[in-house]
């Protein structure tokens, strides 16, 4: 299995795209992985396999082509059916609303949706247009041109409240209480919540929890021994039982099992 990350080259795209990533694998090495809740949007262009998603409640659904992965609110087991060849776009969450063509709350609820189902038909044509390019650099260059053309046709949907709140959440690694963020922005928490649900499809509290848990996963996937008490302290969890509860809710596993999962997917 081969993976790689590429930063966007065009300055305008850097406001919207965090990076492009690729994944390729033969059928015998095709990944089957557990993915937890995430605080970003990925448009995944598939040039080969379909995927099957299974929730903790044993609900299954198949994605037969390219798809959009939204802000997931629960863990899923994802299995590739055959050879895998992905080229994906990792969007900043507060920028993706300008290009989605669909309410972000709907995408978050669905967890993943085939691009054919989105009202913005430009997404549907991307995979077909890029399939003619045989190498990754050419595909990414063509993809950047397509994204710039899409931006020219869209009216930017931005919220200064959401952008400033996101900055505070990420700087604090998700540990800053939402009431303090709201006070710093001089708005009521309910207004901030409405802005988040409109532009991201989730509440600021949920987003903060995911950011904090993502940082916890970064800590525990280090090869050295883990100091669980230090992680709990650094990330502001009430106690170890609180952290254990988050691990079970977000990945359906104990902290040690989450650590092994993170190490195995590096």
UniProtKB/TrEMBL annotation:
Keyword terms, alphabetized: DNA-binding, Transcription, Transcription regulation
Entry-linked InterPro entries: AraC_XylS_family_regulators, DUF6597, Homeodomain-like_sf, HTH_AraC
Claim: DNA-binding is one of the keywords in the record: yes
Keyword Transcription regulation: yes
Pfam families: DUF6597 (PF20240), HTH_18 (PF12833)
Domain HTH araC/xylS-type: from-to ranges: 159-261
GO molecular function annotation: DNA-binding transcription factor activity; sequence-specific DNA binding
Domain of life where this protein originates: Bacteria
SUPFAM superfamilies (UniProt xref): Homeodomain-like
Designated name of the protein: Transcriptional regulator, AraC family
Native source organism of the sequence: Candidatus Moduliflexus flocculans
Taxonomic path: Bacteria, Candidatus Moduliflexota, Candidatus Moduliflexia, Candidatus Moduliflexales, Candidatus Moduliflexaceae
């Amino acid at each position: 299995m081969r993976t790689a990350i590429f930063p966007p080259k065009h300055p305008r795209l850097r406001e919207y795209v965090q990076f492009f990533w690729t994944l390729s694998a033969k059928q015998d090495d095709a990944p089957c992985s557990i993915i937890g809740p995430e605080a970003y949007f990925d448009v995944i262009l598939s040039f080969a396999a379909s995927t099957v998603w299974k929730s903790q409640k044993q609900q299954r659904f198949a994605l037969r082509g390219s798809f959009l992965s939204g802000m997931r609110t629960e863990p899923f087991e994802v299995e590739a059916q055959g050879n895998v060849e992905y080229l994906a776009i990792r969007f900043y969450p507060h920028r993706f609303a300008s290009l989605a063509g669909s309410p972000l709350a709907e995408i978050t609820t669905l967890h993943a949706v085939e691009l054919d189902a989105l009202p913005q038909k430009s997404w549907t044509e991307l995979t077909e247009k890029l399939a003619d390019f045989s190498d990754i650099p050419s595909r990414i260059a063509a993809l950047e041109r397509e994204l710039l053309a899409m931006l020219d046709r869209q009216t930017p949907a931005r919220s200064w409240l959401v952008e400033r709140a996101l900055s505070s959440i990420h700087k604090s690694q998700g540990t800053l209480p939402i009431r303090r963020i709201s006070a710093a922005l001089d708005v009521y928490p309910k207004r901030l919540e409405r802005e988040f649900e409109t532009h991201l499809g989730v509440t600021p509290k949920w987003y903060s929890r995911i950011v904090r848990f993502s940082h916890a996963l970064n800590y525990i996937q280090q090869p050295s021994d883990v100091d669980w008490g230090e992680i709990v302290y650094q990330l502001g969890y009430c106690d170890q039982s609180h952290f254990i509860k988050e691990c079970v809710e977000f990945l359906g596993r104990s902290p040690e099992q989450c650590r092994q999962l993170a190490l195995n997917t590096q």
